[in-house]
Design goal:
- The complex is a heterodimer of chains A (427) and B (152).
- Chain A contains 15 helices and 15 strands.
- With 427 residues, chain A is of the alpha/beta class.
- Chain A folds into two domains: 145 residues, Aspartate Aminotransferase, domain 1, CATH 3.90.1150.10; 260 residues, Type I PLP-dependent aspartate aminotransferase-like (Major domain) (Aspartate Aminotransferase, domain 2), CATH 3.40.640.10.
- In chain A, strands 2-8-7-6-5-3-4 form a seven-stranded mixed sheet, with helices on both faces. Chain A has a four-stranded antiparallel sheet with strand order 11-12-15-14, covered by helices on one side. Chain A has a two-stranded parallel ribbon with strand order 1-13.
- In chain A, helix 11 crosses helix 12.
- With 152 residues, chain B is of the alpha+beta class.
- Chain B has six helices and four strands.
- Chain B has a four-stranded mixed sheet, covered by helices on one side.
- In chain B, helix 2 crosses helix 3, helix 3 runs parallel beside helix 6 and helix 4 runs antiparallel to helix 6.
- Chain B is globular, with a radius of gyration of 14 Å.
- Chain B starts with a helix and ends with a strand.
- The chains are: A alpha/beta (427), B alpha+beta (152).
- At the A-B interface, helix 13 of A face helix 1 and helix 2 of B.
Chain lengths: 427, 152
């Protein structure tokens, strides 16, 4: 099938099949499926589903509230998950201990970003003349909250823009992040283009200008080792479901002193120390940000998802996904009717690759691929300003995860040839 | 699978060689319809004759194959219909693509547009298929008021 691949025979052999599919009940039950939409949500390994069930069968109680053993176990499970997540993103204190109290659980990454936009705008007293800097690559979840905050406070929203090589250059970073910047919030990896932004350089510039730096890690944490100390950011958000955890768990990590200084976002049960008829004293972080009953089973299962990935080894995951991304990019490039929207080099794609089939609307592409049991995303990918900036209305997007193999990608290519035959006759 | 039959030769013929995709010179009614998230944009025009029947219908715009083929089939079907008949057909079409109307005899009234029946198995594509029909219904209900319709 493959023509001139830059991959060696050994590398191609290593991605020819995927033994890991056996760990995923849905993929096992549907061998006909080529699932290439992990950027939207990943499949879950049996270990995660088992963990969720184990929680309800053996330690189900409302965490933090009860004074009996079950509730204590649930509370302990959440605390351990916090520590595990902190280690996973290298959020360690000076003594090398995980900053478990700096891990806040939300429903998803979007909620974490809403929490940040609300609380940080108060913390930095955002107002007219101030600037919030984001990039034009943002998913709507890291765009609309800042747009709203700027509308409410009178601050200006400034956009970092990539050059024609899809790169946000150092020059652009220095031009856009100036002394008026109070908050900088950028995506680590674009969910449309798959490119990695130099968030370490962005964070450094933000700090030089006295601004805070938020990193949206929704598309990076599942695919590459993210070390918040190396990035130098103040906050990182991501969602558990994109790395194999259950739906409904978002994660916010923040520098402890900043989290302490921030006001709460949602208020109510379990986020207070004391309540009177006229006021309340907030709990310590992280409880201050976690009003109401937490999805303890989901948090416990997210912990299991990290354990599963660590068992594979993040380095092995990265390397396999790198090979798959290169193979996907090269196979797409072989098709004359297909234009890649983003870098032409497979190495520059972290899991996601957007493309266009000449003269065929992406929704038609996705529908025809679906009849071949190939799952891709088509549309604006919740990044309308980016698509408008690039001059597209919608694109097709395929995204790989470590459980995919070259066969899934070959199925995509076969399906795309079928799309072409339907719209333009035989090639 | 059902989707295979949706993109049939007959369907694709409406995409590749539309019969009604042009500007109508002496239109009596014009109405715009959009699907913002899909990028489907449609301008629908009809000419009502003195006896109150649709003498000609046409459309311009761009979008996915489902939205464009649907507009072409609808334009063909509407020729000679009264506004009341046209509105009844719009309802019937909506029933078909949302899966609530399955009576083959009734669906036969939709003529070629019955080819889009399989959209009822593709919920994500319903708004593509219904764009032209909703635009027509809005147009006829608005009685010539040149507004815009969105199916979102």
């Amino acid at each position: 099938m493959t023509m001139d691949s830059s991959l060696t025979q050994a590398q191609l052999a290593s991605i020819r099949a995927s033994a890991l599919k056996a760990d995923f009940p849905l993929l096992l039950a549907h061998p006909e499926l080529a699932f290439l939409d992990s950027a939207a949500t990943a499949q879950r390994p049996a270990a995660v589903l088992d963990a969720q069930r184990h929680f309800y069968e053996t330690m189900n109680a409302n965490p933090l509230r009860g004074l009996y053993k079950l509730s204590t176990e649930a509370t302990q499970a959440i605390a351990e998950a916090r520590a595990h997540i902190a280690r996973f993103i290298s959020a360690l204190d000076d003594a090398g201990n995980p900053q478990q109290d700096a891990i806040v659980f939300t429903r998803n990454a979007s909620e974490a970003l809403n929490l940040l936009s609300h609380t940080l705008s108060h913390l930095v007293e955002l107002g007219p003349g101030d600037e919030v800097v984001i990039s034009v690559m943002e998913h709507h979840s890291n765009l609309i909250p800042w747009q709203q905050v700027c509308t409410l406070t009178g601050a200006d929203l400034v956009y970092l823009r990539p050059n024609t090589d899809y790169c946000i250059t150092q020059e652009e970073i220095e031009r856009k992040i100036g002394p008026k910047a109070k908050i900088v919030s950028v995506t680590h990896v674009s969910n449309v283009l798959g490119v990695e932004n130099d968030v370490a350089a962005i964070a450094a510039r933000a700090h030089d200008m006295g601004a805070l730096c938020v990193v949206d890690g929704a598309q990076s944490v599942p695919h590459i080792h993210v070390d918040v100390r190396a990035l130098g950011c103040d906050f990182l958000v991501f969602s558990g479901h994109k790395l194999g955890g259950p739906l409904g768990i978002g994660v916010l990590w923040g520098k402890p002193d900043l989290l302490d200084a921030m006001p709460p976002f949602l208020t109510g049960g379990e986020m207070i120390d004391l309540v009177t008829e006229t006021g309340a004293v907030w709990s310590q972080v992280p409880q201050k940000f976690e009003a109401g009953t937490q999805d303890a089973a989901g948090i416990y299962a997210t912990d299991a998802a990290l354990t599963y990935i660590e068992r594979l080894g993040m380095q092995a995951v990265e390397e396999r996904e790198r090979l798959l991304s290169i193979y996907l990019c090269e196979r797409l490039r072989e098709q004359p009717q297909i234009a890649i929207i983003g870098p032409k080099e497979g190495e520059r794609h972290i899991s996601s690759i957007s493309f266009d089939v000449e003269g065929v609307h992406p929704h038609d592409v996705a529908s025809i691929l679906d009849m071949h049991d190939v799952c891709i995303r088509a549309g604006h990918h919740c990044a309308q300003p980016l698509l408008t900036y690039l001059g597209w209305h919608s694109t097709c997007r395929a995204s790989v995860a470590f459980y995919n193999d070259a066969g899934d990608i070959d199925r995509l290519i076969d399906g795309l040839n079928q799309v072409w035959r339907i719209f333009h006759g035989s090639r | 699978m059902e989707v295979a039959s949706l993109y049939s030769e007959q369907f694709m013929d409406h995409v590749a060689h539309p019969d009604y995709k042009y500007e109508l010179e002496d239109a009596t009614h014009v109405h715009d319809g959009v699907n913002p998230s899909c990028g489907d944009e449609l301008r629908l025009a009809i000419r009502l004759n003195d006896s109150g029947r649709i003498e000609e219908a046409s459309y311009t715009g761009h979008g996915c194959a489902v939205s464009m083929a649907s507009a072409d089939m609808m334009s063909d079907l509407m020729v000679g219909k009264t506004p009341q008949e046209a509105l009844a057909l719009c309802d019937l079409f909506k029933g078909m693509i949302t899966g609530s109307e399955k009576d083959e005899a009734r669906l036969a009234q939709l003529d070629e547009a019955a080819l889009l029946k399989d959209v009822s198995h593709m919920p994500a594509r319903v708004k593509c298929a219904e764009l032209a029909w909703r635009t027509l219904a809005e147009m006829l209900k608005d009685e010539g008021d040149s507004g815009a319709t969105t199916t979102e």
